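INPUT
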Amino acid sequence: MDTTTDGARRPAFAAAIVAAGAFAFEAWFFNAAGRRGEALAGGLIWAAFCSAIFAWIAIGGRPDPARRVFFFTAALAFIPSFIAHLVETRGHMAVTSAEIASGQVPFCHIAITTSLIPAALLRTLDFPAQLSGIRAAFYPMLAYWLLSLLTIGRGWCSWVCFYGGLEDGISSLPRRARVDIGPSGPVLRRWNKAILAFVALAGMGTLVPVYCDWLCPFKLVTEYAEPTSLRSFLALIAFVGLFLSLVVVLPLLTKKRTQCSLLCPFGAMQSLLDRISPFRVAIDTGLCVSCGACDRVCPMLALNPEARSKGRPESSCVKCGTCFGSCSKGAIGYAIRRQSPTPSLPGRTKAGGSFFETLLSPALLFPFTALSFGMIISSGFSAETMTRLVRLVATGSFLIGGGR
Amino acid sequence: MSDRKSLFSRAARAGRTALLLCAAIGVPLFFVNSTWIAARLERLLRLEVEPSFIGGRVLAEFPDPMGDDDGPGGYAYPLGQGRERGELDLVDYIVRRPVSRPIWGDSGAFWQLDAYFAKAVATGLPGGGFRAPVLHVYVQVQAAKPGAAGSTETAFGEGELLRFDPAHPWDYVISADGWSAQAEIRSADGAYRAPVLAIWDIGQRRLSLRIGLEKAPPLLTSVMKGGSTWHYVLVGAYDAARDGHFAALREGANLHDGGGAKDELAPRVFDLLAPPGTCQASELASEDAPAGVFALVEPVEAGGPAPKAYDPELRRRLEAETAKEGLASETDREYRRAALPAPSPADASRIGELFDLGLEDRCLTAIVADLSAKPADPTALAYRGAITAKRADRAAGIAEKVRLVAEAYRDLDAAAGSAAQAIAEDRLAVFICRGSVSSAVPNDVFGRAAQGASDLDEAARIEAGLGDAASADGHLADAAIAYEKAGLRVEAGARWATLAGRKGLPAALRLLLLERGFPIEDRGEDSRRDSR
Amino acid sequence: MEPFLLGLSSAASCLVSCAPFFAPALALESGSGRARRSALLGLFLAGRLASYACVGALVGAIGAAAAGFLPPETDRLLLRAGWALGGLLLLLGGLAGFEGHALCKHLAAREHPGASALGLGIAAGLNVCPPFLAASGRAAALGLAGGAAYFALFFVGTSIWMLPIPLLPRLRAKASELRSVARIAMVLLGIYFLVILGLLGWS
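OUTPUT
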């Protein structure tokens, strides 16, 4: 795939090393600087891990499989950290009426889809969360979302979202798909947009975060309302059912991210607004030979003959880069929006390409941006999970504070 | 033409690359400043959480003084359970507007009342609950009309040993304690009884009572139209064996009964929400035991007409008095500066004084000398931190300010760490320094206002213990201001309410109280309490 | 001016609470001309006004306007009726767009956008808010003609943000995809409103 000569490869390699060095400094700053003891140990482990991931991407020349390793690991690290916090503060995972009445329920980014329009028109947040003061509060989450629009767009779904990471990892476990849902791409995209419309409109009509109330599969690994009535019991069944079917079983059978491509309204919203992001995935139609290999590997069913002929994937593309490695002609890669679709890869340089040209190419800048985003978002809970693991080894206890 | 095109496309490519670079660098830069950015968003958008989730909009709020959980004065807690002072101390009471369309609740329309306590210890039961207090709220929901129902006697046999203002006979009583499965509402005529949802929030030390309005009698439902309601809020010590679960009182406390009762009709109420113009001590001491007459209590009015704006002339007088006090204080400092001996090694023992007199350089010299002999001296570290914070205030650029504040906190936090075993005067200096700095620096950048308030609270306690009530009051006011900056309204209100009950406050404090709507007229007796 | 301003004070929340009823229908007509969209919006608003008038009369009859609040049970009943009716119409409208099933074809054959718009307007109007109660009380005190005029001005105030909607540009390119998404959303909204909010009353 790499058709350059040794002489042309050296600047690219040097650029990758420089970028990796910058990333390592950033990772140290956000995970380890200013920490002590166990927290420092946990932070250093996570910083080293993220730096290794970026170096793998930069030097290897493509995002996958490094990105997927990071993404799945971050998602796995989120769950025990979150659950441990709940056990330490409440004694159990279920959200209590005290928390709802105090407006102390952690605000999840997916709730932005129901909250945005009522917040804009009525100056009211239809979610019992803190407005500020912690990361999982409304204003910080809103700020992170606005940042994602300006930088990575729907790349959030493959580099940042700790829910999507779970599914991404699970869908990559089987060697091959047992059920082929390739042709379902358009149907899934339509249903995804419809669910966004449903969640947004129902939220407007009732000021209830409907997705959180009835549809969120990840309640199973975060928090849920105590099943004290028929309603909350049915909701729990819905969460468990959706999690098992869309996050575990179907991804294992199809090797596709069925929850992210069908259900998640946040992903649909990011798709609609992705045109604000300066980065995109591009297909060089001159190089493409229409072998269809990329169609088969795309976990979001974003590639098909029509998309390839247009030179860009469908709106459900999450910029994960899984398709890059499947293309024997190197025809797919990251590009700048509105630029002619000539993707660049770290391993390739144009004739006479310089160190700076490679360093400032979308092929390096997008993974740097996206992995920075994901690394910083995960720096709290992932480093903390590492700290808890260190503590588990040292003292035999995973909890800090003993729990109740 | 083709040269221009090529130049344009090169410029466009450079622009796009610059944009990508901004995106890449922008992400870490954003996160370094994310707290500041979120604070700016908050100022821009000014949202509120949908009130239906959190119990409805606040209709009226009544801060109650802290440390008045001793009835008319002198009551002692029952000795059982190791109850701590503060567990029966009501610090705030909030009446909310009824919610007609609740969200995420299994009940229908409701009316919520919130009571905050200074301290809360959980019962450990599954539904939550605070172990010590029993709360009774007697409510009159409509102004008394001839022939209307209502009562001026307690609802629970002997109960609290009180009677209620005949001008405001109560219509409903809500009773809640941490050991009963649920709270309850009952009407004065006994015809209506229903469970009330009690939400015990141990973190906020708050009990929320949600009174269901669906299938409720029309009199109770009438609260939905707005208008005034009158509330008697009574806190007692829990005793399952007594009427209304209010523990009895004797001369001396025992396992189940409280102590300090002056006669057999002493009200069994440790804390009472007293309306403006009255005080808890006088109301709870108004019984006439020989005549067999219970103490009379008056309600607070929620939803009444807005309090009159303060008299601008009074404000001007207080401002003038404050300026005079400030001038007198500055004159005094000048005298003290003039009377200071020349710089000498003895300065190490007067670091605090040098700082108070504004002699920063001399103070720093003394600090350096002191720390060379005692590297962990908390007073020296604290004052060094305070001086660094003052330099930050005077610094030119934001980056320099932030750097200096971070440096200041290294000293201040180290001082707090080594002050644990120090003498009271040293601990006082540490808490005043760190508290003042934390209150002064922007909370949306450093997030230290709440800690500063807690430090100033501690400073107030230490001053009171050393016998300097005036300084203690000053620190309490500073703590209230810091709590306001931290957005902790209830904590701030409780401190202002406490100060409002003190006599002989300086004009500066009285001005702060006036601005916050607290009455500042002199009271009939000194309601000062010793801090515990 | 006063009734108009009173209506204007709740115009934003009226827009937001009515959106689930008219937005999907509007999306279905995204490829149609302004005249047709204006007509459908007009029918929606007419249904809403009719609903307001009936509820206003009811509110006056039970003395709720004078009392200043609606008994919670009555409010809940009206809301649930609105959700159930609106949910049913949305569900039927959504199912009419799916091909391949006899029931859907049957519904498609009987689909009448105008009647649906009217019905959805009636459903949206079964939502009593405090400004509505205040307006009902004032209108009742002004007699028949005065009261009707007062109420009409109030209604215009509440609808102000909805009036420019037909002026949105006509979509040609993505109209078919938008209609498809709208139909699915209508089915989901229909089930949620009819079953969860209307019949079961779980909010």
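end of record. Confidence is low (pLDDT under 50) at residues 522-532 of chain B.
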